[in-house]
Amino acid sequence: MKPETWAPHVTVAAIVERDGRFLVVEEHTADGLRINQPAGHLEAGETLVDAVVRETLEETAHPFTPHALVGVYMTHFGRSDSYGTTYLRFTFCGTSGAVLTDRALDADIVRALWLTADELRAASERHRTPLVMQCVDDYLAGRRFPLDFVHTHSVGPKLDIQ
């Protein structure tokens, strides 16, 4: 029997604040209808910035322009040994353009909505993960790292790193 291989799932999330309200999505999950930031998985060949721009557009129909990295978060779900599921989330903040009304949302997304921080706190039992509020709180506390804090290196010749 082949041993299990552990690898973290790399995800991105967007924080967009407009007039004291945050852009979030209501989405179908295995645990029912949940609230989350626009978020999703990094795809092969993407930069983290490309991924958060794509995910925000796919889930909200709002074009997203990242301005800063709010933080990097790690969460572990599942089994108590090292083979549960680990998510490494890069959360960016920025601005969004007007909704593209002719664009369909991802299949699991019910709708995009704008909620205040207090409304988000009041709905904490519906959050997809505790990171929803943690990221908003970090944003409200002023946590910002420049986008060049995250480096993406081009794929070149295979390196033998030891």
UniProtKB/TrEMBL annotation:
Q: Which GO terms describe its molecular function?
A: nucleoside diphosphate phosphatase activity; ribonucleoside triphosphate phosphatase activity; thiamine diphosphate phosphatase activity
Question: Which gene name belongs to this protein?
Answer: nudJ
Question: What EC designation does it have?
Answer: 3.6.1.-
The organism encoding this protein is Trinickia violacea
**Matching CDD domains:** NUDIX_Hydrolase
Subunit info here reads: Monomer.
Q: Which family does it belong to?
A: Belongs to the Nudix hydrolase family. NudJ subfamily.
Nudix hydrolase domain location is 7-137
Task: Give the superkingdom in one word.
Answer: Bacteria
Record flagged with keyword Magnesium: yes
State what protein this is by name.
Phosphatase NudJ
Named cofactor requirement(s): Mg(2+)
Q: Which InterPro entries match?
A: NUDIX_hydrolase-like_dom_sf, NUDIX_hydrolase_dom, NudJ
Q: Which UniProt keywords apply?
A: Hydrolase, Magnesium
Q: Does the keyword Magnesium apply?
A: yes
Q: Which Pfam families match?
A: NUDIX (PF00293)
